[in-house]
Design a protein that fits this description.
Mean pLDDT: 85
Number of domains: 2
Largest sheet: 7 strands, parallel
CATH class of the largest domain: Alpha Beta
Shape: globular
Strand content: 15-25%
Helix content: 25-40%
Number of strands: 12
Radius of gyration: 22 Å
CATH topology of the largest domain: Rossmann fold
Low-confidence stretches: 1-16, 19-54
CATH superfamily of the largest domain: NAD(P)-binding Rossmann-like Domain
Bound molecules: nicotinamide-adenine-dinucleotide
CATH architecture of the largest domain: 3-Layer(aba) Sandwich
């Protein structure tokens, strides 16, 4: 057995996968091949090797495994872009937030997933290392509670992904004060209040990041979208000002403008009326709907070191939906 000094734990979902690579060793072609049934991921670094695991050099692994092991080794080194980062993600029980929570965790982040309390949130992360906090972001004490959970369980915050949102649809003349306030409360006010609470932690982070989810409806709009568009335009204005204030602390603040994405927000309507989904897919120049992963990957980029010189910017992730003025 090679003298593994330090083992990165990355428990593979199935036997025959790379579960660990030696760190600080010359020979990085040594791979650990799990003989174990599926296991949940473990956190952190371990120094002991489980006796039930067998070691192979990639050169002596069974021939049939070599292509897969080579690919996994490459992937392993390309990943872990958020190693050691601590992330709060709101709206994490579904859609974009759910995909992002899993992606951030796979990339090495410690994640606190925030969403409305209930079975859906618990079920979404059961058996993973992702921690959950069930509370409406619009609650008065939500910022204090969420930050306390992050400080206690993650040790602070490096990345704040304000993503929770609701869609409302009602003509202006029929929109009640309550509907207006609820939309603005969840989509904008809660974002402001949680960000304000996280600023002390972000300032002390080595790579503080705020990522806010707006929408293509921040720049365009549609029938019945006055409250939603107002809230999402507000996200842009808020994030621009935030970027200016936090820049001197090395903290970036950017926002995403997703197009038509297949999530909990849209799937119900699209199932009932597939022609609406088709219309959105055809409006996009890439001729398809977006998937949660399409947005999660861009959130990962903005959260990573690669985006360290980007701040105060909105990134459209819409397959070209917002590109066409006509035709
Ligand atoms: N799906 C799209 O086409 C689309 C397009 C543009 C922007 N967006 C934005 O993307 C974000 C994520 O939405 P999604 O599309 O993944 O939809 P989704 O409904 O699948 O996920 C939104 C999540 O936010 C949670 N949430 C709602 N109100 C909350 C509250 N008060 N407190 C805590 N959590 C709350 C929901 O429970 C849900 O899990 C939203 O801000 C939405 O406005 C979505």
């Amino acid at each position: 057995m090679p003298p593994f000094r330090r083992i990165c734990t990355q428990i593979a979902p199935q036997a025959g996968s790379i579960t660990s690579l030696s760190v600080g060793q010359q020979n990085i072609s040594q791979v650990l091949v799990s003989q174990q049934p599926p296991q949940p991921p473990l956190q952190g670094l371990r120094t002991a090797v489980q006796p039930t695991h067998k070691f192979f050099s990639i050169d002596t692994a069974p021939q049939s495994m070599i292509p897969s092991l080579q690919k996994q080794r490459r992937d392993f080194f390309l990943t872990q872009r958020l190693a050691g980062r601590r992330a709060i993600i709101t709206g994490a029980a579904s859609g974009i937030g759910l995909a992002t929570a899993h992606l951030f965790a796979r990339e090495g982040a410690k994640v606190l997933a925030v969403d409305l309390p209930g079975d859906r949130l618990d079920a979404a992360f059961k058996g993973t290392a992702i921690l959950t906090h069930g509370q409406s972001v619009a609650d008065m004490d939500a910022p204090d509670q969420i930050l306390e959970a992050a400080r206690t369980h993650l040790g602070g915050v490096d990345i704040l992904f304000n993503n929770a949102g609701i869609a409302t649809n009602s003509l202006v003349e029929r929109t009640s004060d309550e509907d207006w306030d609820r939309t603005l409360d969840v989509n904008l006010r809660a974002m402001f209040r949680l960000t304000r609470a996280a600023i002390p932690d972000l300032k002390t982070s080595q790579a503080g990041r705020v990522i806010n989810t707006a929408s293509v409806m921040a720049e365009g709009s549609g029938m019945g979208l006055s409250a939603y568009s107002a809230s999402k335009s507000g996200v842009q204005g808020f994030t621009r000002a935030l970027a200016i204030e936090l820049g001197k602390f090395g903290v970036t603040a950017n926002w995403l403008l997703p197009g038509a994405i297949r999530t909990g927000m849209t799937q119900g309507l699209w199932d009932q009326r597939p022609e609406i989904a088709d219309t959105w897919a055809n409006k996009a120049v890439l001729r398809r709907l977006g998937e949660p992963d399409d947005i999660a990957k861009v959130a990962l980029f903005l959260a990573s070191d690669d985006a360290g010189f980007i701040t105060g910017q909105g990134l459209s992730v819409d397959g070209g939906l917002s590109l066409r003025i006509g035709g």
